Amino acid sequence: MHDLKQLRDNLDHIRTSLGRRGNDVSWTDLQKLSEERRAVTTQVEQFRHELNKGSEEVARLRRAKEPAEQAMAAMKQLGDRIKDAEGALRKIEEALTDLALRIPNLPHTSVPVGADASENVELRRWGTIPSFSSAPKPHWEVGENLGILDFDRAAKIAGARFSVMTGAGAKLERALINYMLDLHTTQHGYREVIPPLMVNRSSMTGTGQLPKFEEDLFRLRDEEYFLIPTAEVPVTNLHREEILGEDRLPMRYTAYTPCFRREAGSYGKDTRGLIRLHQFNKVELVAYTTPERSYEELERLTGHAESILQGLNLPYRVITLCTGDMGFSAAKTYDLEVWLPSQQQYREISSCSNFESFQARRASIKYRPIGGKKEAKADFVHTLNGSGLAVGRTLVAILENFQQPDGSVEIPSILRPYMGGLERIEK
Q: Is residue 201 annotated as a catalytic residue, yes or no?
């Protein structure tokens, strides 16, 4: 969320900086409300000044033992006017806040300017793309032939865009979760969290999912709870409305959770397989840090996500998202894209983003500088997060990149201890 004063004073700059990202923002309404807020605030301050002068006049009259009834009546009338003006100001600020919550974050100056994904910038590639003697099969065909993936029964149980993993497939998914968590907690310095899978409206608002993206969320019918679309939501909100000591920063958390998304607007895209489901597993990385170190932290966090792919020997590339392809809350985002042989292209498996103070302002997460007294001014932390990794998509990449001519799938060596020594999945 943007500071309301900054919106008032720098509205044109913010609008220009957002470019196409701000196309659906009601800038005219925002300008009008900002002007009304300024005018009513000035009026309230003037009324209060007059009230103070009136109080002094009443006190003078009483000391002089002169009639004060008329002055007191005027003060009462003025108090009523203040009450009405403050009520009007509250309504204006509520409307202004609602609009402000729908304005995307400003892109960092290093983010490439572009209209859509075609203008993202590739930074680097890692790994060797595998070669096959015949056309590689898509992961759903590999998994169904091995008897470890069942989409028909998932559709019977729940509907489209769900899956059932069985046998070695279920064990492989669990192995991936454990491998990711072990690496992040023992080598990368993250503290593991098991958060709630349902959160309240304030938590969703704090990380930027609400109010703009409510249609993409699953909400309980009779309660004001939402199923989480990512562990970013509950883990970032761990310190909502808190002031942290700078000596505690950076703070790094990792969490495995199921995630739930409606995938609104994605109909016709990736309708087969595990790429785009309503329910999927993910290991998330979340960090809080000072503004001075947040971009250093972004590089660090991205490297941690990359290390998972390197450990699994999966070829991937890293791209910087352009302004037109970045998420609502991000100031800068790196996407990791893993190679899928059946599609002959790289597909997203992780997004690593720096939100700067955008989420912290919405969720009121601050820190107090080292050596600062309790009364010292606290500042907003910078928050970051990234997938470390999307588990289902990692499994997709393994099934496709490690498929063998006989239909079996070789298990990456780093996962074999988690699989009881199993070296390949066979029918």
A: no
Rounded to 5°, angle at Cα 170 from 393 and 307: 40
Q: Return the percentage of the chain with pLDDT > 90, whole number.
A: 82
For the domain made up of 117-425, the CATH class stated in words is alpha beta
Q: What percent of the chain has pLDDT over 70?
A: 98
Query: Confidence band (pLDDT; 50, 70, 90) for 348?
Result: very high
Q: What is the mean pLDDT of residues 357-385?
A: 89
Q: Which CATH class is domain 4-100?
A: mainly alpha
Q: In the predicted model, is pLDDT for residue 420 greater than 90? A: yes
> Does the annotation count 276 as an active-site position?
yes
Which residue out of 276, 293, 416, 424 is catalytically annotated? 276
Among residues 34, 163, 203, 351, the one annotated as catalytic is 351
Selecting among 348, 364, 408, 424, the annotated active-site residue is 348
Mark whether 351 is an active-site residue.
yes
Where do the structural domains in the chain lie, given as residue ranges?
Answer: 4-100, 117-425
348 catalytic? Reply is yes
The residue from 37, 261, 362, 368 that is catalytic is 261
